Amino acid sequence: MLETNSIQPKIYDLEERTAIFGERIIDLCKKAPKGSVTNRIVDQLIGAGTGTGGNYQEANGASSKKDFRNKIFICKKEAKEAQYWLRMLARACEELKVECKELWSEAQELIMIFSKIAKSSG
Fold first, then answer.
1. N or C: which end of the chain has fewer CB within 10 A?
2. Is the pTM of this model over 0.85?
3. Per-domain residue ranges of the chain
């Protein structure tokens, strides 16, 4: 496991990169105060943020090209959903706004990577 911080070199091992993304999402969510608004956002964000890498793991074990492509689309969908919940968390917890923006940007890069993979695997 790599130590994560806000300034990181780009990681080209996508399995590791998506795992670190999920870990950073978990670390961020641990900082969010508990409450009726944040609890729901945190649950959704952890699901989408960790689901990105989980689905990429599944894609790498896909049984066919079609299965692989479908799982890659799910990775993209999860990353897009994570962006939405990061935006909501930034609104709910002003003190987490900078970290939410950094993770939103990482999610955007992952979306572009998954889009490229999906196009080239079709």
1. N
2. yes
3. 14-120
